Amino acid sequence: MTRGRLILFEGLDRTGKTTQSEALLKYLNLQGDQSSSSKRCELIKFPERSTPIGKLINNYLVDKSFKLPDQSIHLLFSSNRWELTEQIKSSLQKGNDVLLDRYVFSGIAYSLAKDTERMDFDWCLSPDIGLIKPDLTIFLTTDSDISTSNQINNRSGFGAERYEKSDFQLKVKAKFDIVFNYFFKDYTKSSSATTSNMYTSSDGITTLLKVNVIDKDIP
Ligand code: NYM
C-alpha cells in the first residue's frame, strides 16, 4: 500500500492556517468517500492541547502569568510533536493523508523571535531532529511588513493568547524567513507576491499563499 501524504500548513497567527487546513480536510475526505478506497484524511493541530504535555502548553499560552523558561516551553512544544509521532506514522502507513496545522518550523521561528541567549537556530532545531518530514509545506503569510501588524491586529480574537502581539508577530515573520531559507531551495526567489499566489480572505485581509515542496530533510 502507498503511504499517505503528510501536508503541513505553516504561518503566523491569524493568517488562515486553520481555515485552509480544514477546507482541504473536507475536500480530501469527500474525494475519499467518492472513490472505492476506505482512505481517510486526518488533521492534527500543533500544539495538540489535549495531551498531558499539550495541557501544560495550553496553560502557558492562555495564562500570561504562568512562568516557564523559554528553553522549557520550547522543549515542551517539541515534545508535544513527539507525543503524536507514532499516531502520524501509523495513519500514513495505512495510506491515510495527514494534514498538520503548524509543526517544526513554527517551533523554531517563535522561539528564535524571543532572542534568548544561547537559543540559536541549531539549539532550537535539535529536539525535533528525527521527526517525520512533511511532503508538502504550505506557508501562509501576509504580504508586507507594514501591513502585517495592522492586518493581524484587526483579526477577531487577536491578543487573547501569549505571542499575539503585532510587534512579536513581525519578529516571528522575519524568523520564518530564516527558517524557510534554510529548509527550502529558492525560497527568497519565490517569495514575491504575484496575482496568482494571492487570495483575499473573507474578512478582506489579503494573504499571500506560498507553496513549497520541501527539499531539505529535518535531519
Ligand atoms: N507555537 C506553536 C510555538 O511557539 N511553538 C510551536 O512549536 C508551535 C507548534 O503556539 N501563537 C505557538 C504559535 C501560536 C501558539 O498556536 C498557538 P495556534 O496555532 O494559534 O493554536
What's the short story on this structure?
By secondary structure, the protein is an alpha/beta fold. Helix content is 43%, strand content 15%.
Give a verbal description of the structure.
The protein is built from seven helices and six strands; from the N terminus they run E-H-E-H-H-E-H-H-E-H-H-E-E. It is an alpha/beta fold. It has one domain (7-212): Rossmann fold (3-Layer(aba) Sandwich). A six-stranded mixed beta sheet has the order 2-3-1-4-6-5, with helices on both faces. Helix 2 (52-62) packs across helix 3 (70-93) and helix 3 (70-93) runs antiparallel to helix 4. The longest helix has 24 residues, at 70-93. The radius of gyration is 17 Å and the shape is globular. The two termini are 26 Å apart. The relative contact order is 0.18. Pathway: Pyrimidine metabolism; dTTP biosynthesis. One of its GO terms (biological process) is dTTP biosynthetic process. It comes from Henningerozyma blattae (strain ATCC 34711 / CBS 6284 / DSM 70876 / NBRC 10599 / NRRL Y-10934 / UCD 77-7) (Yeast). It is an enzyme of class 2 (transferase). Keywords: ATP-binding, Kinase, Nucleotide biosynthesis, Nucleotide-binding, Transferase.
List the helices and strands and how they pair.
Elements: E1 6-11, H1 17-34, E2 41-45, H2 52-62, H3 70-93, E3 97-101, H4 104-112, H5 121-125, E4 136-142, H6 145-154, H7 166-183, E5 198-200, E6 206-212
Parallel strand pairs: 1-3, 1-4, 2-3
Antiparallel strand pairs: 4-6, 5-6
Helix pairs in contact: 2-3, 3-4, 4-7, 6-7
The chain binds 3'-deoxy-3'-aminothymidine monophosphate.
The site of 3'-deoxy-3'-aminothymidine monophosphate has 10 residues, from α4.
